[in-house]
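ARCHIVE CARD
SHELF: 3
SLOT: left
DATA:
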Amino acid sequence: MYLQKYLSTAPVLLTLWMTFTAGFIIEINRFFPDMLGLYF
């Protein structure tokens, strides 16, 4: 029960979300190398 409470805290969720987002961007950049250049 303590583990579930720990996993629902903001820093843990933020870390998981940032990891997911970074991985998602890396995967897009792998398949579409020029896509990021359009936005930045």
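SLOT: right
DATA:
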Amino acid sequence: MTPLPAPASDWAYFLDLDGTLVGFARAPSAVHIDRRLRGLVQDLHRSAGGALAVITGRRIVDIDGLFPGTRLAAAGLHGIERRTASGRLARHRFPAGRLDDVRHRLAAAAARHPRLLVEDKGIAVAVHYRRAPRLGGYAHRLVRGMLARLGAEYCLQAGKLVVEIRPAGRDKGIAIREFMRERPFQGRIPVFIGDDATDEYGFAVINRLGGYSVKVGAGRTAARWRLRDVRSVRAWLRLGANGGRTR
């Protein structure tokens, strides 16, 4: 891959969270955003004229909890919910009750295997096996079996040591495309940084838009640029937060 250029002043930033801006923790609730990272994101947001959005599998309410006092544009739950830069919130409606049986079965599985962690996101449910990687095959088989009962409205989303049942028809790429039709993103060159399989949807859209798709870490990817790790991501973004180069 060719070296990633320094950020420019006319870019729009789309940033994954876990594994990109911050390292993974043993549980999603254990992730901590320190003062330096909050300051970096705020500085980059100002430098980009507000053209910055967090694109994540977390809920938007969780993003707000991690960045208190900073109401960022965001796409949560892989694009199922989205908040524009102006603060307008849109949620694609799916019946959360459809997953009641899934929740019950996954809770029973977690009781048998306490090192599995079930994360209930309301209209999606994830099984984390970060504390027990050997249970990965079991977690995937378990979720695939449940998915077969739900029909085409739901899909399986695999990630790093996690597998999730979520509504189908939305993804990070669709969310990025929607942001790019709106101010202050419209007319800028898009950049998306992510580390996981769910981010590949975003990379594909960024490539079609002629932007910068950036994969964090090793592994096959559609991204055209790469950064080594979270520390490298923060160092590179700091260049943009300091004003970026002009064209």
